[in-house]
Every structure is written in C-alpha cells, then in structure tokens.
Amino acid sequence: MASRTSRSISALLSSCLLLMAAPLTASAGSVFDGLPLESPSPHPAPKADSVVVVVDSTSLAGAAEAVAEALGKTPEKKARFFNGFGVGVDFVGLVQKSIGADWAQMEVLARMNIRERFFPVFELGLGEADHEGRDLDNHFHVRSPYFRLGCDYNIRYKRLDGYRFFVGLRYGFSFYKYDLTSPSPITDPVWGTSQPFDLQGLSGNAHWAEVVIGLETRLWSIIRLGWDIRFKLLITQKAHEVGQPWYIPGLGKQPDGIGWGGTFKLMFDI
To answer: Which of 69, 71, 203, 218 is deepest in the core (most CB within 10 A)?
Structure first.
C-alpha cells in the first residue's frame, strides 16, 4: 500500500513538472541537455512501476522564475550604473502666472540617473513679482533668475516598476535686482517737504537650503509625472539698506527665513 502511494505521488509530481517545463524528455535512453552518456551501450528499460523524467535545466530555470513571479516573489533586478539623463518642466509657476498671482516662478530641470538610485539634479528658474503695498502705497517689482544644485535619493531603487519615491537636498542661490517705487511722493513729517519715491535696480542676493520629498511615476515610455514638497531655510541674505525685498526669486515670500514650497513637473527620461 505504501509503495503504491509513493508511486502515485511520484507520478503526480512528475506530471506537474511536465506541464511547467518544456521541452521535457521522458525515455529510457534520454540525455541531460545534450550531454553524451559515458557508455554507448543502451540502458535497460525502466521498471513498469517507475517514472524517469529528464528536464532541460534551462527550461526548468525559466519555469521556476515564472512560478516565483506568479507567487509575487520576483527576483531582484539590478539597474545599470548609468541610466541616462532626464529633463523636466514645473507647472506650478505656469499656473500662478496664468491666474494673475502677484508672484510666480517658472523653472526647468536636468538630472542624471545613477543606478536608479542617485539623481544629481540642476534646476534653473525665473522668479518674478509685482506687488502693491497696502500701507505705504508702494510697489515692489523683481524679475531675476535663480539656481539650485542637489541630489535626490530613490528609496524604491530595488523595485524597477516605474515608481520612484524621492528624498533629497538642494542648495539654492539667486542674485537679483528689485525696484521700490510709489506713485505718490513721500512727505517729510518734520520739514513738510516732499520728494518722489522711485528706487530702481537695488541689488540683493540670497542663499538657502531645501529638503525635498517627492513621488514620481511613469505615464508612458519615457514620459513621467511627479510632484514634491519642499521645506526651505534661508542661509544668508544681502539686501539694500532702504528695505528688504518682498519676494526673493527661487525662495519665495520668506519674511522669517523659513517656508514651504513644491513643484508639479512633467519629466522626460532620455
């Protein structure tokens, strides 16, 4: 009885292997993947109650990978050292500009892909603002470029499934000129004299750091869509003695030296 049960189990397992792996050969005189037998003499036929299954090793490995994938245990894939470049554009500033916001910053970026893990990035933008003061009836205007250098780290680098979850750092800097003007002259409260208030081309600069957290997904082929949020910290700032700028290109409205920002960008992997 035990012998019959063992034969049944053996036959069942052999049938499963025959269904999963191809090509398979089951015969008395089979060879393993084309390797010749030590002796050309024919082998005796197997007993009637035994099953001989000879499996192609390559086919068996492929079948094992297919079974592992079906069970959700796909073997880890490794990316190449260098996986090309990426370029992108941010939509947030374009939306700000289209709705008539009093400040906006449009930017583009370029980055490298190293092992799908590290993404050194360079960001170039144009920040502009036109703001009317409420208290002194003055006007602030600036339109200058800004720059950021940094690197993103993809936490999901082991899963090459099209999704990326980033954490990163940026160093930003901007050298700008701004205008402070007023349609009404300023009256001296002591002497009662008045003079026009029209200060243009005031120089300033700022340096700041950013902590970035973001998510990115592949839409189709080389086209990707992503977003991030950023915590910004002013490192140093130099402004004209007559007054601080209402807005700093790239940094935004930061009266206390800290703030938040974000991007929503369309990317192209090259």
So the answer is: 218
CB–CB of 203/240 below 8 Å? yes
In 3D, which of 15, 34, 215, 245 has the Cα closest to residue 142? Answer: 245
Record the pTM: 0.68
Q: Where are the domains of the chain?
A: 2-70, 82-269
Overall CATH class of domain 82-269? mainly beta
Q: Residues near 100 by Cβ (< 8 Å), separated by ≥ 6?
A: none
3-state helix, strand, coil in the chain (%, to 5): 15, 50, 35
Residue 82 is encoded by which pair of tokens?
């260098």
Q: Could you tell me which of 51, 32, 29 has the C-alpha nearest to residue 40?
A: 29
In this predicted structure, what is the pLDDT of residue 231? 96
At 181, the pLDDT band (50, 70, 90 cuts) reads confident
